[in-house]
Amino acid sequence: MKNRTLFDYIIISLKGIAMGAADVVPGVSGGTIAFISGIYEELLTSISSINFNTLKLLKTDGIKAVWKQINGNFLFSLLLGIGISVASLAKLISWLLENKPVLLWSFFFGLVLASILFIGKQISKWNISTVLVLVVGAILAYWITTLQPLITEGTSPFFLFLAGALAICAMILPGISGAFILVLLGAYKPVLEAVHNRDFKLIAIIGVGAVVGLLTFSRILKWLFNHYKDLTLAVLTGFVLGSLNKIWPWKEVLKSKIIEGKTIIINEQSVSPYSFKGDPELLFAILLSLAGFFTIILLEKIAIKNES
């Protein structure tokens, strides 16, 4: 566990708020935010340290020893920020998606575009293998963005448990959006409504699924980072690159359906802003894309300065 001040933990909570805001948007990954904010590997290490040995340590050495082993201060600060973000920004993000989608996607497009450069720079050695897995990752992520979501929205306990487990795996992968996975499964609306309505029973079911998925998948990612770091970074870079199709600001809806008074998009495609049927808001879209892009550049420079 690193020696940190109260201010350091406040900064971690702010990073958690950014992660939570990204995870609410169906197309942006909180894992991307974790990576570009410099806490990704520490997050994986902390999560993967939670296992059955933790229970044994609790019995023998007590809560304080367990808290230290799992990097409790870090996890608590981060989860506090994510929780605050999801609880407070869910309605705002929903409103922006409904009323200002071009501007919202523009900001995240610039942010994610810059993160490709950031993640790619972490690869220490480029060769045929790294390029190949980058291309495969990009193709896979692009293919996922073209899938049509399920129309029926399940709310059975087992379905929501499974949805929580799958979505959390995506949330800690840069480039793969957990919220978008929920959309594909048809679980996005039930989850968002559970948060809005403070339906603690549904939230608990989804949460248990998320914990199971998180503890399992984080170990796999941690092992990959320890043994194949460059290849893992390359495929993550590919994931982020391929996901740009999903967050392209200008979309043409090919097929939609009205369910319970709300329009559910079933199929859409990216189009040029000049062939966009609505108001492309091009000037503001470009400005917000640049704002997102240079936000990442600024964060990187701050991180380098702090390390030095």
TrEMBL record:
Pfam families: VCA0040-like
Transmembrane region(s): 74-96, 102-119, 126-145, 157-188, 200-221, 282-299
InterPro entries: VCA0040-like
Lineage: superkingdom: Bacteria
Keywords, alphabetical: Membrane, Transmembrane, Transmembrane helix
Listed name of the protein: DUF368 domain-containing protein
Originating species: Urechidicola croceus
